[in-house]
Structures are given as C-alpha cells and as structure tokens.
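Changelog note: in this version the structure field was regenerated for every chain. One regenerated record is shown below for reference.
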Amino acid sequence: MIIEDDSIVAMHIRETVQGHNHQVVGVVKSAESAFRVAREKAVDIVISDINIEGEMDGISCCKVLQESYHVSVILVSAYNDMATLQNASSLDFTGYLIKPFREDELLTLLDLIALREKRKEHPRRKKLNKVFSYCPKHQTLYKEDQVVELSQKEKTFLEALIRANGAIVSYQYFIDMIWDGEEVSDVARRQLVFRLKQKLPGFPLKLVRGVGYKLEKSL
C-alpha cells in the first residue's frame, strides 16, 4: 500500500513497484483511508510519506498498521532534519528515502524486505488474546500453537472481524462477504456464529445487538 498525498509522486511509486512484480492494493492520501484498505485487503508492505493528509502523520499511521497488521514499512520524506529523524526512529521501518529518490533505491528496499520474509521460518501472527492468534498471510487461526480447522464461511467471518481491528462489522457486511449478497435468514447467520462459539470457547467475539459483531480487545 502507498500512502502519499502528492499524486505525481504516488503514481511514480506505483509504477516503480508494479514494474518490479509487486501488487499495489491501494494508493491513499490519509491515515483514515489507509486503515480502511488494511481492514479490507491483505497488506504486507507500506510505503508512506511522513507528511500526509489528515490529523495523523505518516509515522503515527504506520505505527498503528504495524501493531495491527505487522506490515513492513518504508518511509518517504522531503526532510532529513534531526527532529524528523528522531520522530521516525520510534518506528520499526526498513528504509528512509529522501525525496527525490532513485527507483533503484526503492527497489533495493523492497528486495531487502522480500529476503527477510523468506528467512522467517514461521509466518507472523496477530495476537487476539492469551489463547488465540491469527496469521493474515495464510488466513489461519491458531489456538495456542495448534491450527484450528475452519470452514470457508467461518474463515471469511473471522477474517472480516480481525481486519476490523475492534470496530463493529455490520450484519449486512457479513452477508455480502460470506453469502455474496444473497438473501439469507437471521437463523442462518446465527447458526454460523453459534457453531463458531462452540468450536472456539474463549474467542473474543462480541455481539452488538441490532448492529453486528466485533472483537473484544482482551490483551
């Protein structure tokens, strides 16, 4: 994902990344838009300017994305003063590019991230509570260190909840995602949730009556 409020720079980054056989899942200008993309799509790498639109800057935005989705980060900025660098140092980023930068500098950082990922024996997991964790890359739920077998509908349901990162996911959204917008009774939806609760005792799922479901933050 690219977070950049300069359309020309964003287009240049996108063309460079796609030309190196990487998929760009979103190009956005603000943290709010970045969080929406991350909830809906699998994001592995974030290339972000520091000064972006909205109340939250690129560094703070990337911190949230790292904590929630374990993404790798490449920062881009027109500034390299000590105050900016000190602020950026609080973030675990792979590289810091000063505008204007060369294409090969960006591609080298992307290659470095790819090499790091290959060396990892185990995929990164998002911890949900003391018992359950989730691997976004493989869409796999773990109970402690054991893989939990799930049906495709159950996987889609949990994926939507986990990507929402504590926000409420509406009934209609689940129907659109799981049943592709088909007309589904409340009984069918409730049965799916009931089976999941039976299968996953202790899972931090909460019903918000009349609205939808959410994950409770219980860490």
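Spot check on this record: The radius of gyration is 19 Å. Helices lie at 7-18, 31-40, 58-69, 82-88, 103-119, 152-164, 171-178, 186-199.
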